[in-house]
Amino acid sequence: MNVIDKELNLELKDEFTSVKSLFESLIKENKLNNANIICWVPHEVSSLIQIGWEDGLLDDLKDFLNDKAPKGKWMKHDEPDTPFRHNFYEHIRSKLVGNISMTLIVKDRELYIGKYQDLYFYSPVYEYIPNQKIFCRILKFD
Questions:
Q1: Nearest alpha carbon to residue 123 among 50, 19, 14
Q2: Closest of 94, 71, 93 to residue 83, by C-alpha
Q3: Which of 7, 72, 95, 102 keeps 20 to 30 A from 22, CA to CA?
């Protein structure tokens, strides 16, 4: 087994960014046949999500987050003199929809996920921190 460490650099333009093609490129560039890709997101209010790709699903998810974790409801957490004043809602939203880590399976040179699945990077602070990373440790089995 070989171990390969990679960083995927993201330039975010939206709260939800599809990253499936980045992982497909990673598989191709590293000639992965059978492997596990262990992913980790270093920013505490960002997360990785595996979700079905269907019309309106992301819009419904945004509505859900606005309903369940609205901006301005919880005000105890504060970061004075930053754009992140009273941003508990951003912290809890990223935990509600995803995880800071994820393991992906590569089987026969393909990302092994459902036919209608997509992978997203979620960041409610994309406007303030557009450049983010996903750290990857690849366990290459052949």
A1: 14
A2: 71
A3: 95
From 110, 104, 97, select the one nearest 62 (Cα to Cα).
Answer: 97
CB atoms near residue 133 (< 10 Å): 15
Angstrom distance (rounded) from CA 98 to CA 41? 11
* Helix, strand, or coil (residue 66): helix
Enter the pTM of the model.
Answer: 0.89
62 phi/psi in degrees, rounded to 5:
-60, -45
Hey, what domains does the chain have and what are their CATH numbers?
2-140 (2.60.120.460)
Q: In sequence order, what are the residues at sequence separation of 6 or more whose Cβ sits closer than 8 angstroms to the Cβ of residue 66?
A: none
How many CA atoms, within 13 angstroms, populate the side-chain half-sphere of residue 83?
7
Q: What is the dihedral of CA 32, 16, 97, 41, to 10 degrees?
A: 50
Residue 82: which residues within 8 A CB-CB, separation 6 or more? none
Over residues 87-138, the pLDDT tens digits come to 787 888 898 999 999 999 999 999 999 988 999 999 998 998 999 999 999 9
